[in-house]
Amino acid sequence: MDSYLPMSPKAGARLLLPYLFLALVTSQTAAQNTTTTTTTPTTCAEGVHVITARGSNEPLGAGRLGPVASDLIAAIPNSTVQALNYPATFFDYATSVAAGILELRDALESYSRTCPQGKVVMMGYSQGAQVILDTLCGAQPYDRPVVQFNESAPLNSTIVEHNVLAVILYGDPTHAAEAPWNYGNSTTNGLFPRDNITACASYAPKIRSWCDEGDFFCALGDDGEIHGSYFDAYGDDAVEFALQLWEEAEETGGDTGSEDGSGSGSGSGSGEDGADNDRDDSAADHLGTNWRIPFVLGVAAICSCFAL
Ligand SMILES: *[C@@H]1O[C@H](CO)[C@@H](O)[C@H](O)[C@H]1NC(C)=O
Ligand SMILES: *[C@@H]1O[C@H](CO)[C@@H](O)[C@H](O)[C@H]1NC(C)=O
Ligand SMILES: *[C@@H]1O[C@H](CO)[C@@H](O)[C@H](O)[C@H]1NC(C)=O
Ligand SMILES: *[C@@H]1O[C@H](CO)[C@@H](O)[C@H](O)[C@H]1NC(C)=O
Ligand SMILES: *[C@@H]1O[C@H](CO)[C@@H](O)[C@H](O)[C@H]1NC(C)=O
Ligand SMILES: *[C@@H]1O[C@H](CO)[C@@H](O)[C@H](O)[C@H]1NC(C)=O
Known about the structure:
It is built from 9 helices and 9 strands.
């Protein structure tokens, strides 16, 4: 994060170049994926319908989740991809998340109405991961300097039970260390830890949320690389996970059951050694890094120069 300290305009422009490049690359390749839309389809996929929610400051489209989405739909014929059309802005993060929740709720309600048998796989990166979990689980009001989230109600559980097949998340800022759907080796809370996971508890077998130690956004760490590493590190795991749930649903021909607990993640969230020590460590860690939150958000708001 230190590399985002105030800098000369020239250095700032250099920093922006990769993002401009990413925008160009994305707009060129988007046309090649004829199954990718930014609106909710009015026809039903025979395979899965993938909804991607990109990270902050990524251009509209599947973004860095694109290759993961592409791998999944290559494995399941007649599948479609919808890139959630939400701002994904960083400078007004909470407003962007709120818009994303409304958009995703609409998409899920509409798709499940059109396709009562439809199977949806959601993939979210960073801010997009927060949007997805806030939509499914609801969110408590959260009032801090710089960022104020409003309360939101959980999605109608009938939709999740019938139509949501799998949820894949990378670098979720609402990472809660105790959640049963955690994967990766982080044992610490994220920037905006989800304080009530009850509404989503029964969906745990459908959810995998990857967060590695050192990621600032999902684990309050200080490694600048980890947050962008999930696609390569866990892309195949995510595809395999969704594929397995798809095959199970095909076999049973029924709902995207979440009751039997099969495929339930053991999660690596609780750590193996000395639970008490872990708690103290993470509390100290949290205090120690807390000052960075308004600082990083402030710097990011001014230069809006990195993907969260
Ligand atoms: C579209 O295809 C390109 C490669 O041709 C890939 O990099 C990109 O991630 C894909 N996007 C989606 C949404 O599948
Ligand atoms: C489904 O996929 C198969 C093979 O990819 C293709 O031949 C068929 O036309 C597709 N069906 C629809 C409805 O798109
Ligand atoms: C929260 O709700 C208030 C009152 O309705 C509204 O003015 C504000 O814009 C909302 N904030 C977000 C981040 O959605
Ligand atoms: C949830 O959706 C189902 C199916 O559309 C409907 O029957 C039920 O009333 C809804 N529940 C709530 C609380 O809106
Ligand atoms: C956590 O996992 C990442 C990715 O596999 C690895 O690079 C890192 O060394 C691990 N960290 C710890 C503390 O085990
Ligand atoms: C957590 O959420 C559940 C269901 O959404 C609710 O019943 C419960 O009261 C909440 N707990 C707290 C402490 O807010």
